[in-house]
Amino acid sequence: MSNGIELHNITKRYGSLTAVDDVSLSIKDNEFFALLGPSGCGKTTLLRSLAGFETPQEGRIIVGGVDVTHTKPSQRPLNLMFQSYALFPHMSVEKNIAYGLEMEKLPKAEIATRVGEVIDSARLGDFAKRKPDQLSGGQRQRVALARALVKRPRVLLLDEPLSALDKKLREDMQLELKRLQNEVGITFLMVTHDQEEALVMADRIAVLHDGKLAQVGTPMELYEHPKSRFVANFIGEMNFLSGTAAPNGVKIADGGLLRGTADTAGGSVIAVRPERISLQTTPPDNSQNALHGTVFDTAYHGSDLSVHLKTCGGRETVVARMQIGQIDPASIPKGTELYCVWSPDHTRILHA
Amino acid sequence: MAHKSSRFLNLHLCLFYIFLYVPILVLMVLSFNKAGLPTVWTGFSLEWYSKLWQSKEILSAARNTLVVAVSATVLATIVGTLLAVGVETRRQSSALDAVLFAPMIIPDIVLAIALLSFYSLLNFTLGLHSIILSHTVFNIAFVAAVVRTRMRNFDHSILEASADLGGSEVTTFFRVLLPAIAPGVIAGALLSFTLSIDEFIIAFFTAGPGSASTTLPMQIYAMIRFGVTPEINAMATIVMFVSFAIVIIAQRADKGAFTR
Q: Which chain A positions have a beta carbon within 8 Å of B161's beta carbon?
């Protein structure tokens, strides 16, 4: 039996608003998949449709080879970890975890064994008798996870699983969730608005924009080869320079021809990541893209330094990100004139 | 400056409490007065309380009141809770809200006349059961209001979590929703009990003839026409303590839920 998910042409409307617009996706067996997008992009609606709390007007949802489009939430072979965790406040940790198994009418002994196992592996042994409000945020999150996983679903849905945790704990949990997914060997489908979280955790990411699928790919594909300005802008930092389309590049006013690789022909926007730009005092040879600019601001981030330059006669701003070891912030005071240099291989040509 | 104004406020508070509670205190003290005089203290006695126990009429009225209060509370709590759950989990509507709150705001006398006309229109025989029904009607609004406040203070996703974990709607109601709103339900029930136990106007209008459906407030009213006796003081004292105790329990129940 497979643990994959297939979404065929899912459309969900609320009155005149189309929350999810003709989305088709295929999520592989035991994949860690992320639905990424800004708030209102339809990712939560899609997740809730999968869990069964929303019924799309069009399309089919197939989980593990079975069409569940019209199956009740309680009958679907998947479980959801809620953003608020949704722990039952009047039940102890133990009872919360046992609830799902009691619904399956399993023998008491089996329930006790399985709950015990999950409590041990989630390191909740000391808190088993406590109520949710006697737990810390991190512990509550582990209970919510344990409560969903004890059901042994084919697919675990995670709704912004780490958004309620503080930064340090969130980073630990990112790796912890990845490790857990490897261990239990089921499909994880996560919804998040945090692009960094999606990049770190997911095997593949689907970026949603206004209810439509913008791009699907591995984190590296999305980061290095964004297909649209929206994706390029949403994931990581990006410099955009507008001009007119030219063969193999874009002609920028007061900046000359900038070359790049394109998946879409005829684009008129040049996109380059700040960390791909190097700064030098002399112009490079012709194999590189170059823009002459003047430093007007620098921002110190600890491990690296953002240098903001005015280029193209002051009309465009370019940000370059340098490792602190490579550059001394004191050596580039405001007003320093430099060349921004980068390779055409790291340049994307996109449509405006 | 601040000190002066707080002293003034304290004085104001004292006057307020004196105005509110001195008459009640006088009533309570006089219920232990040996002689049946409303103005002269002649010594401590429990005579009037024992007289209460011997009066058949009063005991029967007290029994009627308890029957009405308990039945109306049970009915109103069930219906009111379901109403609150339904209203809070469905789409919000301010028109519906207004209709729900109306029985709390409508003057009792209006509701009493309306119910009486309605019963006679249906050729409904009046009696204890018609009082129970009438009390249920206005208590539903109070129970629903208390339970709705509680419904707004809990995370509704626990209901979806229950469904997600395989719970049916019935299981979700009894195992997840009801425990979560239980303090509100208990508070609503106790409130409805206290309202019912000393309600006079509606009971008076919708009661049947004779003493079979006379409630305690109606009995007091009948007795008071021959002057205030220490017996009435004694009864009023008991009724007040019962109501007071229930209100305190209700507050405890509702507060417990937030601190738990």
A: 80, 82, 86-88, 147
- A124 with A140: CB under 8 angstroms? no
Domain of residue B133, CATH code: 1.10.3720.10
| B27 is a domain residue | no
The ipTM of this complex is: 0.83
B167 touches A at CB < 8 Å: yes
Name the phi and psi angles at A27, rounded to 5: -105, 125
The residue segments making up the domain with residue B157 are: 47-259
Who has greater pLDDT, A334 or A352? A334
Q: Is B176 on the interface with A (CB under 8 A)?
A: yes
| A73 vs B155, B163, B180: nearest CB | B163
- How high is the pLDDT of residue A7? 93
Distance CA A221, CA A196 (A): 14
For the record, the structure tokens of A118 come out as 């999950």
Closest-CA residue of chain B to A131: B260
Residues A196-228 pLDDT 10s: 999 999 999 999 999 999 999 999 999 999 999
User: Tokens in use for B166?
Assistant: 């395989």
Substitution target in B150, B153, B158, B172 with the highest count of A β-carbons within 10 Å is B158
Nearest to B213 by CA among B54, B50, B71: B71
Q: How far apart are CA A204 and CA B108, in angstroms?
A: 66
Does B137 reside within a domain?
yes
What is the value of pTM for the model shown?
0.80
Q: For chain B, what is the domain count?
A: 1
Nearest Cα to Cα of residue B189 among B130, B148, B147: B147
Residue A306: alpha-carbon gap to chain centroid: 24
Handedness of CA B218, B222, B225, B229 (dihedral sign): negative
Q: Is the Cβ pair B162, A104 closer than 8 Å?
A: no
CA distance A194 to chain B (A): 22
pLDDT tier for residue B3 given thresholds of 50, 70 and 90: low
* Cross-chain CB nearest to A80 (options B154, B155, B164): B164
Contacts of residue B165, Cβ cutoff 8 Å, sequence gap at least 6: A74, A79, A99, A100, A103, A147, A148, A151
